[in-house]
Amino acid sequence: MDEQVKICPECKAEYYAHITKCRSCDVTLVSPEEAGANKLPTAQGELVCIELGAYERVLEFATLLESSGIGAKTLNVRSTDSCSSNGSFGLFVHQSLAQASVKIIEDFCERVYPGMREAQERLAAGLCPACGADTKNAKTECPDCGLSLSDECGDTGCGGGCSH
To answer: Which pLDDT score is estimated for 90?
Structure first.
């Protein structure tokens, strides 16, 4: 490959060397050597569940992984013990690819939902992700701004769109 190019680590598109960001993915381009160093390990081991959730969300992640060269399976896990969560669908990959798969999903979520990681860290620390108020004693909503802190939307048939 010509050394006068850069590669997008996400979509593998080639660009002239003076270009720094991928137009489609909005990520920093890398040299061909760096792109080669990021090759995935061989798919080995049994399938492991790396994500749980609504079908649409799990399917979106499966499509993302497939476009990155990782084979992924979306399975209904409602009646199995292979994953434990409220989600009814699981995203499964070969064990040897699990770490790379999680990294790809995390990077995607950070691009699509900037600030989500910080919001999750605040929530885990007992703070409101929106306003930073102390929510350790609050069960369903932030006492300052009223943000819902519950996973339940209150609609038992899930017309509320939370996919429970």
So the answer is: 94
Q: What is the pLDDT of residues 124-146, one digit of tens each?
A: 999 999 999 999 888 788 999 99
Q: Which residues contact 74 (CB under 8 A, 6 or more apart)?
A: 55, 58, 59, 62, 89, 90, 91, 92
> How far is 63 from 75, CA to CA, in rounded Å?
14
Number of neighbours of residue 71 by Cβ within 10 angstroms: 14
State in Å, rounded, how far the first CA of the chain is from the last one. 49
Residue 62 and residue 97 in one domain: yes
Residue 162, pLDDT score: 52
- Domain count for the chain: 2
Kindly state whether residue 67 falls inside one of the protein's structural domains. Answer: yes
133 backbone dihedrals φ, ψ, rounded to 5°: -70, 155
Mean pLDDT estimate for the chain: 82
86 and 61 within one domain: yes
Structure tokens at 47: 């399938």
Q: Which residues pair with 52 in a beta bridge?
A: 90
Asked if residue 117 belongs to a domain, the reply is no
Asked, for residue 164, whether it belongs to a domain, the answer is: no
CA–CA gap between residue 99 and residue 12 (Å, rounded): 20
